[in-house]
Amino acid sequence: MRKRSLVGLVAVGGAAALIAATTGIAGSGPKSATVLPSSSCGPVQAGGGSPQFIVPSDLPLQGSSRSQTIEMTKAIAFTLKQQGYKAGKYTVGYQSCDDSTAQAGKWDPAKCSGNAGLYVRDPSVIGVLGTFNSGCAEIEVASANRVSLGYVSPANTYVGLTHALKGATQPGEPNKYYPTGKRNYIRVVAADDFQGAADALLAKSLGAKTTYILNDKEAYGAGIAATYRNAVKRVGLKVVGDKAWDPKASSYEDLAANIKASGAQSVFLGGLECENGGKLIKDLRAGLPASVKIIAPDGFSSFKDTIKDAGTASEGMYISIAGQPYKTLGKSGKAFAAAFGKSIGLPAAKVNPYSNYGATAMLVMLKAIAASNGTRASVTANLFKTKLSDSPIGGFVINKNGDTNLAPISIYTVKGKDAPFFKLINPPASLVAG
What we know:
By secondary structure, the chain is of the alpha/beta class. The chain contains 13 helices and 17 strands. It has helices at 15-23, 66-82, 109-121, 134-145, 192-205, 219-235, 253-262, 277-287, 303-310, 331-344, 353-370, 376-383, 429-432, and strands at residues 53-59, 86-87, 90-98, 100-101, 106-107, 128-130, 151-153, 185-187, 210-215, 238-244, 266-270, 293-296, 318-322, 387-388, 396-397, 409-413, 421-425. The longest helix is centred in the last third of the chain and has 18 residues, at 353-370. The protein is globular and about 65 Å long. It starts with 14 loop residues before the first helix and ends with a helix. The model is unreliable at 1-28 (pLDDT under 50).
């Protein structure tokens, strides 16, 4: 149920030869990049030129998160174009790759494994922007680690990818994702220990004294449910129930009845909207008193999809997102949203918050490439030197684990066909600490 097995970890003969062929020799980057296959990736975007390197994004482009991720790919491409398809002395092209399948309607483990194999074997790929789903990162990062291929995620928030947290991560995490002993993964978004703490503070501020915790059994869902569980106990909320929902269920009426009987004044949906979240919200809203607050993390942050799938049942629910809304962004963040929004026909305030994160991920990767000697290992090493005084999401640094120090959490509330900003929460370190 929880797809944690590391499928396809470079399962080919001659691992040493593969590593030598795909890691690269200092200063010997490919003269002209090869193209990743159309079965997984879109065409190369390089401004009409012939790039030396390819930086693909790895996101689920099918299913309920599609509107959000498609916009993210446009933001990434827009950013590379702004930089003139250059990273220092190197020319860089971009390909948008899909880690989802139509059958699954979301990210697919086999597709993630297959994509990782494509990146690992193609010496043109100098770094990867991804993934979107933490479960997919568990598969891809370990495979890429064997050839020092660096990843920058604009969206993964599962704690165990970068650090251990009692009750929220599994044995062996995060070291099992780095078989060489050296890290090759960073993220520009705050991990779930911050978001879970913010959601606990939100529940308390809304007047709830009791809470019921749900999770979808995925790495992300189970992880963020655990961070919420840790935090609510610290803020004084009583946990009156803690269960997983079955994404394949045709009805959640019995679950709603159990939650109602528990006396819960709030319900936390630890998981992804694409795991039948719309139906879950509908049945919860139909079976619970109107006073019960429904709180969801950024697994439901594709507002259009959540509202479309849940209908009017989503009215009044709260959704948290790691990061800041347009109105609290700095000058650079607002400027990016305005320029990018104009390019896709959206007002700046309507640009999805994760588009700024996608753009920032590309900027971080380009900076690391520019400072490198043209090898994967050098690019990866430079990712851990990331220190930006400004970016589309603000200034931040990356620590030795690959985590950012920029961790504001935005809360939105659904009203009609939109989800306007509600409040910004900066959880104190004492609440976040495991």
